Structures are given as C-alpha cells and as structure tokens.
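To whoever is on call:

I kicked off a structure prediction for a single chain this morning and the downstream step that reads the tokens threw a length-mismatch warning. I double-checked the sequence; it's 276 residues and nothing unusual in it as far as I can see. Pasting both halves so you can look.
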Amino acid sequence: MYKTLLVPVDGRARSARSLEAAGKLAAQWDAHVVGLYVQPPSQIPSYARAEGGAVQLDEVYAKAVAEMTAQARARFDEGVKAAGLARAEWRVGRGDPAAVMALHARYADLVLVNQTDPQDDGGTGFADAILLSVGRPVLVLPYAGDAAVKADNILVCWDAGREAARAVTDALPLLQRAKRVTVLSVDSRATAGGHGEQPGADIALYLSRHGVKAEVARTASGGIDPGSVILSRAFDYGTDLIVMGAYGHSRVRELLLGGATRTLLKQMTVPVLMSH
C-alpha cells in the first residue's frame, strides 16, 4: 500500500491538481500526504551584490522568498481542505528542487507531479528531473483534463527491462485494485536474456501470483515511435492509467533520438506511473 504520498507544491494554481489527486489516493489508502515547497537558492550575481549592497539585496531576496513560501502554503492549505485530508504535513526545503525532492522522497511510497505544460516549457522539465533523481515511483498527471486517478483500466508497458520490472512492482497496489489490466509489449521477440517464449506471459504469471489477472497484448510499431504506439493502444483500450519504466535507454540517447519516456511525458492523455 501507499502510506506516504509526496507532492511538490508552489503558489501556482496547477499545484492544486496534484494535491487533488493525492487527496483521492490518500482516501483509498488511509495515507499521509506531505506537501513540499522548495525555496529557490539566491542567484544574485556578485557584481550586483557589490553595486547594490549585499545586505539590502539579501533583505529583498528574503522578503520575496517569504512571500512565495506563504503563497505555496496557502495553496497547500486550500488543497488539504478541499480534499478533506485527515493526515497532511507541510514541509519547506531550499536548494535544487530535484535534489531536495529526492531527499524527501526516500521516505515516501509515491511521488505525484504535474506534467510540464508545453506552453511553459518546450521540454519535459521538472517531471523529467524528478524521475531521474528520486528513486521512487512517480505518478505524472497530465496538465489538461481531470486530475483524478481512477486506475480501473491499467495498461502496463512491458519490455522485460529492469525499469519496467521496477514499475510493475511499484504499481502493485493499484494493479491489485484494477478491474482490467493489459500487458502491452511492442516489437517484442523471444530472447534468452529478456522475453521468454511468449513475450508478456512471464510478467502476467508474476502478476497472477499477486492476485492480478492480466491480459497480454503484443503489437508491432511498424516504424512508428513506440511512445506513440503506447498512446494509441491506451486510447483503443480505454485506459485510465499507464504503468511503464522510465528511461530504459540512456537519457542522452532519448534526448538525441527520442524515446517512449519523452513521448509520454510530452503527450500523455492519462496519468502515467513511471519508475527509473
């Protein structure tokens, strides 16, 4: 079960999306929700400090940070009240956001973040950094649409890799409650070091021993980006949650050549639980 949920919070309205989702999951698991605001480190250049006076600039910075922290706390309190959370905790850290999140995530079962809005960032932004640093499953919520995590019809993306195996294990609490689970493998073939004779059958058997009845589906990409294939099948199956490993290839390779992780982070239409 997920007993501790970690949610990054800031003063922006979209912080409420991840808080709303955390609240609904917390109600299911009787879980504790931790809201974390990371204060930005001072980035005042040395020449500016020399010209403007270090003390005065430090005071201006401290005041700005205090205001941003108060806005984030207000957003958190609103979200806690709206979700009716019985167990909620507010924390404040300072430094690199991904590094601070990684530290706090070591004591959480699940991290919830929002997909980067393409209008704000052409890349995958904060979610990308979190995935690579926290060492915990990350539930990424699409920036548009309903923030609810229904998880009745789950699509598991399976390539027999270690990231996918980790994601399946991390998602077991959700998989065990789902009404339908489909294991999808794209361009899979039997290999001694990966897929067995029936690609997908081994992980379906593993899931069955955990009380999860899963259907196995195999498909060919036909030269299309695997991430696009996954999204297409998710639509066909009426999926409301995708489970997959993140960055099975190196991040540099995916940055240069593309990959399923980056496609999902940019184009997701339903929540995606990822593990790296």
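Update from on-call: the warning came from a stale cache, not from the record. Cleared it. Sanity check on the structure: Residues 252-258 have pLDDT under 50 and may be disordered.
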